[in-house]
Design brief:
Layout (H helix, E strand, L loop, with lengths): L2 H12 L1 H8 L7 E6 L5 E7 L2 E4 L6 H11 L1 H4 L4 E5 L5 H9 L4 E6 L2 H10 L3 H4 L4 E6 L5 H12 L4 E4 L2 H6 L1 H38 L1 H6 L1 E2 L13 E5 L5 H11 L4 E5 L2 H7 L6 E4 L5 H7 L8 E3 L5 H6 L4 E3 L1 E2 L3 H6 L9 E2 L5 H11 L4 E5 L20 H9 L3 E4 L5 E4 L1 H19 L3 E4 L11 E2 L2 H8 L18 H44 L3 H19 L2 H10 L1 H16 L3 H40 L1
Parallel strand pairs: 4-5, 4-7, 5-6, 8-13, 9-10, 9-16, 10-11, 11-12, 12-13, 14-15, 16-19, 19-20
Antiparallel strand pairs: 1-2, 2-3, 17-18
Helix pairs in contact: 1-2, 3-5, 8-10, 10-19, 10-25, 17-19, 21-22, 21-25, 22-25, 24-25
Keywords: Coiled coil
Protein name: Motility associated factor glycosyltransferase family protein
Organism: Fontibacillus phaseoli
Length: 623
Amino acid sequence: MNVLELNKKYLSRHYPALIRAFESTLEDEYTYTREITRSGELNLRIEINQNSYYLHSRYNARHEAKKWVESIGSEIDDIDNVLLVGIGLGYYLEELLSVTKARYIFVYEPSVLVFKEWLNERAIEKTLSDPRIRLFAVGESEFLPLQLANDISEQMIGTFRKVSPPIYERLFPEISEQFNTKMKDTIIQQISNMQTREFNQETWLENSLFNLPYLINNSSILALKDKWKDQNIKAIIVGSGPSLSQDLHYLSELKEKCLIIAAGSSIQAMEHLGVYPHFVVSMDGTKANHHVFKNVDVSRVPLVFCPSIYYEILEGHKNSLYYGKFQSDIITKYLYESQENEIPSFISTATVTGTGIQIAAFMGIKDIYLMGQDLSYPNNQFYAPGVVHISEEIQDLHIAHSEKWVKNVDGGLNRTKGSMEVLLKDIEILVKIMELQGVKIINTSKGGAVIEGTEWASMDKIAPSLLEYPSIDFEISKQIPAKTPETKDKQVKEVSTKLKKVSGETKKLELKIKKLTEVIKKLEYALSESSFNKTTERLVEIDKLWKNITQNDVFNVFYQYSLAHYINIYMRHVPEIVEAEDIFKKGRLITTHLGVLVKRMRDFSPSLISILEKATERLKALT
């Protein structure tokens, strides 16, 4: 076998995704010439934007790579996680691996052509078999930096540093800057998500289970799929930002011309001026969301919800109810296994606006307008008039603690804060995803934050042309058939059977978790005695118990749903546990990291059992 064949064979076994990159027909936006350095090494002369660059030194590629790694030595000393952007023809990666003491190495090569030349010319197995390499990605996809930022932030433990050879900073300046931004944004968002999930773990579980009767008694929005496809229909997603007050009057005029969707609390502002949307979307699982709907006439507007919505909202709603679900909703997927395809799934977003956008796109609408989506605090204002579920004192407090600034559509700056930045970035990501699906998002929010990827236009200029469209009846209750009694009965039986099974399995699992807790305590004692035999025995016992627990559906659905934050933290330490050769080190890692997770599971088990019992009673009473 030649070098290329050996390399492809190795990739097929260990990095199959990279084989696809090698076989990709996509070409980089530049040309190159193969040259030889004075030391006899392959080099590439790259032509880009009418400029020539050498990938490596024309004299000695390896020596240059070594000098570069030495120059960044102080930056990567004591760093736990290193991201290398740009491997060259392997030299930069090889030299970095030979020097760094980092626990994990993440590798990204932007150029498919450079990657192919590396495979064609040099053996890769020794380099890529280094166990510290946790991720290797290739290509210039627009979304790759974001995807990698997510993957890296989920795996890394401890300090982080991105490094890139100078030639890559010149060849790919935008990619380098993207990583700096995306890593920061992703880490902020993950921290926010973790804090939210930790705070609401039991509430969200209650919602998903307590809302089961409303899923059985009502229809999903499946019948709306592509309803307005190829009909040049426009949608307006209405937010509750301060700018809404400037454009709200247009909605009553446009109600027969555009599909109008209220995103969460904006229904308060709309009702305040006697304007009603075609439906309101809500998915917030916190009790605060209940206050939104307590302050509106719930008999006037249909509600499209996700199962995570705070359950008391559905109890009090007097108009039609319809639903979809999030792709990440493993509970609904599990309990409605046979009918999963009948419930439309959407990407989980940090803001209900994102859900509204996806529902409009699901209905086949390609032009979506955003109104009142300020995603910041223009003129130090929090909400549009009429939005009253949060007191003015608390609103003022939020604004007073908003010490960051974001560009607005007028060229100025608006106050913002970390949590609001998370919402903005989340919407910007969704806008890019929608663009790939042929959906155009136009932002009409006056004075609001710039939403990257959207076009800004004033509703003052848009409305006259929209008013010329033919009138259409957008009432969704006319488009969605009610469930038959037979379908309801079938779903009641299926879900009841599943709940009964889950309740029984949870009680069995609780006993196994208690047993595992006892064995972990015995392991701690064995470690304190430095007993090799007892430590080994306990580790074998723990491994057997843990495998048994993690192969159970209840763990993979209900514990995973509610304790995802703690499970993810433990999973970050698994590679270190697996690779630990010293039996005592392995034991200490197990007691430290698995011990914390098992304690959380033990504390959670009684709550899960109680919630399941209440959910079963609600199902009997409400169906």
